[in-house]
């Protein structure tokens, strides 16, 4: 079977699993379980907690001890078991621990899937900068298909969303064992240093100024991504409390409206090679930050009626905001590190974005919203919330070009020019 098709199928299922519940778990939580908002904040922090250590640990394991595709499969099979167990939970504390366990299995697969894909493409002498983005598009399509499946089958508040995700996770876990072998590269080296034996070499990247700055901004933008995941769908759901909006299609099917963000991703992923070639990775990252400003700013002034175009445009802009940093960032790590530590380095990137970034976004936004933007009736001042988030993204965008002093390294420049 064609290697590109095999990686397309892997990416499709990888993000279908996430799309089946990530944006709709809030509706399930508040409308099905009726547990508290404070407890939901803790629930949504599980992604960040797991991402602080698990991607780095699995990156070390795949670099040192076990084929990446096998580890990838094991994690998805274990993830399927925990997803299947979630609907059986009857109290919020147990729900937290079961979901945390699931995140410990799922979050590392984001970086492992990149490691497996890059390895397979390189072994087939395929240009990763040119060919990986069109393959990665199918992950976004999988996310969209999952959202539409859950929404159109009226499972946004149902436990069925977890059963659907569990079934696909099990299928992907089994399928992973058929993928091209991605052997631990570090075993082949003669380096017997203590750091190498423990697989900690990648952490030395923090000593390099360009990587230290890159990882710091990865954290800050990871917080922005968390704000979207945690509050985007809930924001549109809240319009149902207003009589003038409650019967509108966007309010009845908010997950479908939010899926426009993922549809936009498919277009911007394809545009990445062009933008990298034209502007270089530093400015592609800057464009991402400016896109986050627009993402939040448009949400601030939108509504499901006359302002629907703003919400839709915000979702379109999301494609640039998400892809231009996450995909370009993974390419930056891939081309700026040695083969011995690439799995660990991708894990570090995920740790900063989805780990520390997600935790920072969860706790900071929760504190700010509770203290400054929660009304007496426990409703939310969404206009103020989104403007605050937009200001946060703007500050990051203004600072970034002055501190990230990076020019193309020869390997990345050559790869981009040949894309």
TrEMBL record:
Pfam families: Nuc_H_symport. This is Nucleoside permease. The keyword Transport applies. NCBIfam families: 2A0110. Keywords: Cell membrane, Membrane, Transmembrane, Transmembrane helix, Transport. CDD domains: MFS_NHS. It is a multi-pass membrane protein. The keyword Transmembrane helix applies. PANTHER family: BLL5896 PROTEIN (PTHR23522), NUCLEOSIDE PERMEASE NUPG-RELATED (PTHR23522:SF4). It is found in: Cell membrane. Its main location: membrane. The chain crosses the membrane at residues 7-30, 42-62, 71-89, 95-121, 133-150, 162-179, 211-231, 251-276, 283-301, 307-327, 348-369, 384-404. Residues 202-419 form the Major facilitator superfamily (MFS) profile domain. InterPro entries: MFS_dom, MFS_trans_sf, Nuc_H_symport.
